[in-house]
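[agent] plan:
  1. take the single chain provided in the ticket
  2. run structure prediction with default settings
  3. attach C-alpha coordinates to the ticket
  4. add a short note for the reviewer (M.T.)
[agent] executing step 1
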Amino acid sequence: MKLNKDMNILIVGLGLLGGSYAQSLKRQGYKVKAITRSRSSVDFALQKGWIDDGTTEVDPQMIGEADFVIIALYPNVFISWIKENQHLFKSGAVITDVTGVKECIVYEIQGFLRQDVEFIAAHPMAGREVCGVQNSDEAIFRGANYIVVPSEDNSEDAIELCEDLGWKLGFADVSKLSPARHDEMIAFLSQLTHCIAVSLMCANDTPGLERYTGDSFRDLTRIARINDEMWSELFLLNRETLLQEMDRFRTEFDRLYECIRDNKRDEMRDMMRLSTERRAYFDKKK
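[agent] step 2 finished; step 3 output follows
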Protein backbone atom coordinates (compact mmCIF):
# COMPACT_ATOMS: atom_id res chain seq x y z
CA MET A 1 0.00 0.00 0.00
CA LYS A 2 1.32 3.42 -0.94
CA LEU A 3 0.28 7.00 -0.35
CA ASN A 4 -2.38 8.22 -2.73
CA LYS A 5 -4.09 11.57 -3.22
CA ASP A 6 -7.46 10.20 -2.03
CA MET A 7 -6.11 9.62 1.48
CA ASN A 8 -6.97 12.01 4.28
CA ILE A 9 -3.76 12.75 6.19
CA LEU A 10 -3.88 14.11 9.74
CA ILE A 11 -0.82 15.54 11.47
CA VAL A 12 -1.01 15.80 15.26
CA GLY A 13 1.58 18.28 16.51
CA LEU A 14 2.58 21.17 14.26
CA GLY A 15 6.11 21.74 15.44
CA LEU A 16 9.29 21.70 13.38
CA LEU A 17 8.84 18.15 12.06
CA GLY A 18 5.05 18.16 11.85
CA GLY A 19 5.16 21.43 9.95
CA SER A 20 7.87 20.16 7.59
CA TYR A 21 5.81 17.02 6.88
CA ALA A 22 2.77 19.21 6.18
CA GLN A 23 4.72 21.53 3.89
CA SER A 24 6.07 18.67 1.80
CA LEU A 25 2.86 16.65 1.57
CA LYS A 26 0.62 19.62 0.76
CA ARG A 27 3.02 20.84 -1.93
CA GLN A 28 2.66 17.41 -3.57
CA GLY A 29 -1.12 17.68 -3.60
CA TYR A 30 -2.10 15.54 -0.61
CA LYS A 31 -5.03 16.40 1.65
CA VAL A 32 -3.52 17.47 4.96
CA LYS A 33 -5.22 18.56 8.18
CA ALA A 34 -3.67 19.23 11.58
CA ILE A 35 -4.37 19.25 15.29
CA THR A 36 -1.98 21.13 17.54
CA ARG A 37 -2.17 23.01 20.83
CA SER A 38 -1.29 26.48 19.54
CA ARG A 39 -3.77 28.53 17.52
CA SER A 40 -0.91 30.63 16.15
CA SER A 41 0.68 27.45 14.73
CA VAL A 42 -2.56 26.55 12.97
CA ASP A 43 -2.92 30.07 11.60
CA PHE A 44 0.70 30.09 10.40
CA ALA A 45 0.32 26.76 8.56
CA LEU A 46 -2.97 27.86 7.00
CA GLN A 47 -1.47 31.14 5.86
CA LYS A 48 1.44 29.27 4.30
CA GLY A 49 -0.93 26.85 2.57
CA TRP A 50 0.63 23.83 4.29
CA ILE A 51 -2.67 22.45 5.59
CA ASP A 52 -6.26 22.41 4.38
CA ASP A 53 -7.69 22.81 7.86
CA GLY A 54 -6.51 22.81 11.46
CA THR A 55 -7.71 23.04 15.03
CA THR A 56 -6.48 23.19 18.61
CA GLU A 57 -9.31 20.93 19.75
CA VAL A 58 -9.72 17.17 19.67
CA ASP A 59 -12.03 17.17 16.67
CA PRO A 60 -13.88 13.82 16.38
CA GLN A 61 -14.79 14.39 12.72
CA MET A 62 -11.23 15.35 11.70
CA ILE A 63 -9.76 12.34 13.50
CA GLY A 64 -12.50 10.00 12.26
CA GLU A 65 -11.93 10.95 8.62
CA ALA A 66 -8.17 10.38 8.71
CA ASP A 67 -6.79 7.40 6.80
CA PHE A 68 -3.19 8.11 7.80
CA VAL A 69 -2.28 9.82 11.08
CA ILE A 70 1.20 11.23 11.69
CA ILE A 71 1.89 11.92 15.37
CA ALA A 72 4.61 14.53 15.99
CA LEU A 73 4.45 14.80 19.77
CA TYR A 74 6.88 14.13 22.63
CA PRO A 75 6.87 10.42 23.59
CA ASN A 76 4.86 10.55 26.82
CA VAL A 77 2.34 13.01 25.39
CA PHE A 78 2.08 10.80 22.30
CA ILE A 79 1.15 7.71 24.32
CA SER A 80 -1.43 9.61 26.36
CA TRP A 81 -2.97 11.16 23.25
CA ILE A 82 -3.43 7.76 21.59
CA LYS A 83 -4.96 6.25 24.75
CA GLU A 84 -7.43 9.08 25.15
CA ASN A 85 -8.47 9.39 21.52
CA GLN A 86 -8.13 5.98 19.87
CA HIS A 87 -11.89 5.47 20.01
CA LEU A 88 -12.18 8.24 17.40
CA PHE A 89 -10.02 6.60 14.72
CA LYS A 90 -11.76 5.12 11.71
CA SER A 91 -11.46 1.38 11.24
CA GLY A 92 -8.43 0.64 9.07
CA ALA A 93 -6.56 3.85 9.95
CA VAL A 94 -2.77 3.67 10.02
CA ILE A 95 -0.76 5.69 12.55
CA THR A 96 2.93 6.57 12.40
CA ASP A 97 5.19 8.85 14.44
CA VAL A 98 8.46 10.80 14.48
CA THR A 99 9.70 10.06 18.00
CA GLY A 100 13.38 9.40 18.73
CA VAL A 101 12.95 6.29 20.91
CA LYS A 102 11.00 3.19 19.99
CA GLU A 103 11.24 0.09 22.20
CA CYS A 104 9.49 1.74 25.16
CA ILE A 105 6.76 3.11 22.88
CA VAL A 106 6.06 0.62 20.09
CA TYR A 107 5.06 -2.36 22.22
CA GLU A 108 3.07 -0.30 24.72
CA ILE A 109 0.97 1.34 22.02
CA GLN A 110 0.51 -1.86 20.04
CA GLY A 111 -0.51 -3.54 23.28
CA PHE A 112 -3.49 -1.28 23.98
CA LEU A 113 -4.40 -0.03 20.48
CA ARG A 114 -7.64 -1.19 18.89
CA GLN A 115 -7.21 -4.25 16.69
CA ASP A 116 -8.69 -2.50 13.63
CA VAL A 117 -6.14 0.34 13.80
CA GLU A 118 -2.41 -0.11 13.12
CA PHE A 119 0.62 1.73 14.48
CA ILE A 120 3.85 1.56 12.45
CA ALA A 121 6.77 3.46 13.97
CA ALA A 122 9.22 5.62 12.02
CA HIS A 123 12.04 8.02 12.76
CA PRO A 124 13.02 10.85 10.40
CA MET A 125 16.71 11.51 11.07
CA ALA A 126 16.37 15.19 10.32
CA GLY A 127 15.98 18.36 12.30
CA ARG A 128 17.29 21.80 13.12
CA GLU A 129 18.56 23.58 16.23
CA VAL A 130 15.33 25.55 16.44
CA CYS A 131 11.76 24.45 17.08
CA GLY A 132 8.25 25.48 16.12
CA VAL A 133 6.25 25.37 12.91
CA GLN A 134 7.60 28.77 11.89
CA ASN A 135 11.01 27.13 11.46
CA SER A 136 9.69 24.21 9.40
CA ASP A 137 11.39 23.50 6.10
CA GLU A 138 10.95 20.39 3.96
CA ALA A 139 14.53 20.86 2.77
CA ILE A 140 15.73 19.23 6.02
CA PHE A 141 14.68 15.87 4.58
CA ARG A 142 16.92 16.08 1.51
CA GLY A 143 20.05 14.02 1.97
CA ALA A 144 18.78 12.71 5.31
CA ASN A 145 17.93 9.19 6.51
CA TYR A 146 14.51 7.81 7.40
CA ILE A 147 14.09 4.68 9.52
CA VAL A 148 10.97 2.51 9.53
CA VAL A 149 10.71 0.55 12.79
CA PRO A 150 8.30 -2.37 12.40
CA SER A 151 7.50 -5.01 14.98
CA GLU A 152 6.32 -8.55 14.34
CA ASP A 153 2.74 -7.26 14.66
CA ASN A 154 2.95 -4.91 11.68
CA SER A 155 1.41 -5.76 8.33
CA GLU A 156 3.32 -5.54 5.06
CA ASP A 157 0.83 -2.93 3.85
CA ALA A 158 1.57 -0.61 6.78
CA ILE A 159 5.33 -1.08 6.42
CA GLU A 160 5.12 -0.29 2.69
CA LEU A 161 2.99 2.79 3.39
CA CYS A 162 5.48 4.08 5.93
CA GLU A 163 8.42 3.45 3.60
CA ASP A 164 6.61 5.24 0.80
CA LEU A 165 6.05 8.22 3.09
CA GLY A 166 9.81 8.45 3.63
CA TRP A 167 10.51 8.45 -0.11
CA LYS A 168 7.69 10.91 -0.84
CA LEU A 169 9.07 13.33 1.76
CA GLY A 170 12.37 13.33 -0.10
CA PHE A 171 14.67 11.37 2.20
CA ALA A 172 17.86 10.09 0.59
CA ASP A 173 17.68 6.67 2.22
CA VAL A 174 14.87 4.62 3.79
CA SER A 175 15.85 1.67 5.98
CA LYS A 176 14.26 -0.72 8.47
CA LEU A 177 15.32 -1.58 12.03
CA SER A 178 13.66 -3.46 14.88
CA PRO A 179 12.69 -1.28 17.88
CA ALA A 180 15.58 -2.60 19.98
CA ARG A 181 18.16 -2.20 17.22
CA HIS A 182 16.85 1.29 16.45
CA ASP A 183 17.40 2.39 20.04
CA GLU A 184 20.93 0.97 20.02
CA MET A 185 21.82 2.86 16.85
CA ILE A 186 20.20 6.10 18.01
CA ALA A 187 21.94 5.97 21.40
CA PHE A 188 25.29 6.16 19.60
CA LEU A 189 24.53 8.17 16.48
CA SER A 190 22.23 10.80 17.95
CA GLN A 191 21.87 10.81 21.72
CA LEU A 192 25.56 10.39 22.54
CA THR A 193 26.51 13.15 20.11
CA HIS A 194 24.10 15.52 21.85
CA CYS A 195 25.56 14.51 25.21
CA ILE A 196 29.05 15.33 23.96
CA ALA A 197 27.98 18.71 22.57
CA VAL A 198 26.21 19.67 25.81
CA SER A 199 29.17 18.58 27.93
CA LEU A 200 31.61 20.52 25.76
CA MET A 201 29.57 23.71 26.06
CA CYS A 202 29.40 23.28 29.85
CA ALA A 203 33.15 22.64 30.18
CA ASN A 204 34.44 26.20 29.79
CA ASP A 205 32.83 29.48 30.81
CA THR A 206 35.60 31.84 29.67
CA PRO A 207 33.92 35.08 28.51
CA GLY A 208 34.27 35.95 24.82
CA LEU A 209 35.07 32.48 23.51
CA GLU A 210 32.89 33.15 20.47
CA ARG A 211 35.39 35.81 19.36
CA TYR A 212 38.23 33.33 19.01
CA THR A 213 36.63 30.15 17.69
CA GLY A 214 36.97 28.59 14.26
CA ASP A 215 34.55 26.44 12.30
CA SER A 216 35.62 23.23 14.04
CA PHE A 217 34.12 24.29 17.37
CA ARG A 218 30.98 25.68 15.74
CA ASP A 219 30.48 22.47 13.72
CA LEU A 220 31.05 20.23 16.72
CA THR A 221 28.65 22.14 18.98
CA ARG A 222 25.90 22.96 16.47
CA ILE A 223 23.51 20.58 18.24
CA ALA A 224 24.32 22.05 21.67
CA ARG A 225 21.47 24.50 21.06
CA ILE A 226 19.15 21.87 22.42
CA ASN A 227 15.48 21.48 23.30
CA ASP A 228 15.97 20.51 26.96
CA GLU A 229 12.38 19.31 27.46
CA MET A 230 12.46 16.88 24.56
CA TRP A 231 16.05 15.63 24.80
CA SER A 232 16.04 15.03 28.55
CA GLU A 233 12.95 12.88 28.05
CA LEU A 234 14.59 10.95 25.20
CA PHE A 235 17.80 10.37 27.20
CA LEU A 236 15.89 8.93 30.16
CA LEU A 237 13.60 6.76 28.03
CA ASN A 238 16.68 5.15 26.46
CA ARG A 239 18.80 5.39 29.60
CA GLU A 240 20.47 1.97 29.83
CA THR A 241 21.45 1.83 26.16
CA LEU A 242 22.69 5.43 26.20
CA LEU A 243 24.77 4.83 29.34
CA GLN A 244 26.45 1.87 27.61
CA GLU A 245 27.42 4.11 24.69
CA MET A 246 28.65 6.81 27.06
CA ASP A 247 30.86 4.22 28.77
CA ARG A 248 32.30 3.16 25.41
CA PHE A 249 32.99 6.79 24.54
CA ARG A 250 34.69 7.41 27.90
CA THR A 251 36.93 4.40 27.27
CA GLU A 252 38.13 5.79 23.94
CA PHE A 253 38.42 9.35 25.29
CA ASP A 254 40.52 8.07 28.21
CA ARG A 255 42.67 6.14 25.75
CA LEU A 256 43.36 9.31 23.77
CA TYR A 257 44.00 11.19 27.01
CA GLU A 258 46.61 8.60 27.99
CA CYS A 259 48.26 8.78 24.55
CA ILE A 260 48.71 12.53 24.97
CA ARG A 261 49.76 12.28 28.61
CA ASP A 262 52.27 9.48 28.00
CA ASN A 263 53.57 10.75 24.65
CA LYS A 264 52.29 7.70 22.74
CA ARG A 265 52.27 9.33 19.34
CA ASP A 266 52.11 6.15 17.26
CA GLU A 267 49.03 4.89 19.10
CA MET A 268 47.45 8.35 18.81
CA ARG A 269 48.04 8.36 15.07
CA ASP A 270 46.51 4.89 14.81
CA MET A 271 43.34 6.25 16.42
CA MET A 272 43.34 9.23 14.06
CA ARG A 273 43.77 7.04 10.98
CA LEU A 274 40.93 4.78 12.11
CA SER A 275 38.79 7.87 12.76
CA THR A 276 39.49 9.24 9.28
CA GLU A 277 38.72 5.90 7.64
CA ARG A 278 35.41 5.45 9.44
CA ARG A 279 34.31 9.06 8.98
CA ALA A 280 34.50 8.74 5.19
CA TYR A 281 31.47 6.44 5.23
CA PHE A 282 29.32 9.23 6.66
CA ASP A 283 29.93 11.82 3.96
CA LYS A 284 26.60 12.50 2.27
CA LYS A 285 26.42 11.66 -1.41
CA LYS A 286 25.50 14.66 -3.53
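[agent] step 4 note for reviewer: The CA atoms of residues 94 and 145 lie 22 Å apart.
[agent] ticket updated
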